[in-house]
């Protein structure tokens, strides 16, 4: 079985990122030839500040330079925090966003906004119009954090 370039890059970078106390959230390789961009998203409890991004960028760049995983062609490396626009797909994403409002789509097609109350490895408690309901992760097709400009204390 052959692995994709993204899988090989992720395998190389996972121990580098975790050694700095972060999770490797996503790796994307975009473009072709001389116009390639390698996007690396990292996350951790409490968020990621710009100094941490700089530290991760240096470590990831060094690891990539020491390996042949990117080949000989030029590329641009971009390291960033996970960002609120990415879907919540792992239990840790739900935990890290407790108290925030999410737009949710369920497997039955129902869509709604709810506030994350609590979560664990099997599902999440969502407050919808004042009532809290438990949703197993396998019932959720997609969930994305919604930006609240005038967030109320929860």
TrEMBL record:
Residues 12-85 form the Ribosome maturation factor RimP N-terminal domain. It is found in: Cytoplasm. GO terms for cellular component: cytosol. GO terms for biological process: ribosomal small subunit assembly; translation. This is Ribosome maturation factor RimP. It comes from Aeromicrobium choanae. It holds the Pfam family RimP_N. The gene is rimP. Keywords: Cytoplasm, Ribosome biogenesis.
């Amino acid at each position: 079985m052959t692995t994709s370039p993204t899988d090989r890059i992720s395998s190389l970078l996972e121990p580098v990122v975790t050694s700095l106390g972060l999770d490797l959230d996503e790796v994307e390789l975009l473009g072709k030839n001389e116009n390639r961009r390698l996007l690396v998203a990292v996350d951790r409890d409490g968020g990621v500040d710009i100094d941490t991004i700089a530290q991760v960028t240096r470590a990831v760049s060094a690891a990539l330079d020491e390996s042949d995983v990117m080949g000989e062609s030029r590329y641009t490396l971009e390291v960033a925090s996970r960002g609120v626009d990415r879907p919540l797909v792992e239990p840790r994403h739900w935990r890290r966003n407790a108290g925030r409002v999410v737009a949710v789509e369920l497997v039955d097609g129902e869509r709604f906004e709810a506030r994350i109350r609590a979560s664990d490895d099997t599902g999440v408690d969502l407050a919808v119009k004042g009532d809290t309901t438990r949703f197993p992760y396998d019932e959720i097709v997609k969930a994305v954090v919604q930006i609240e400009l005038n967030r109320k204390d929860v």
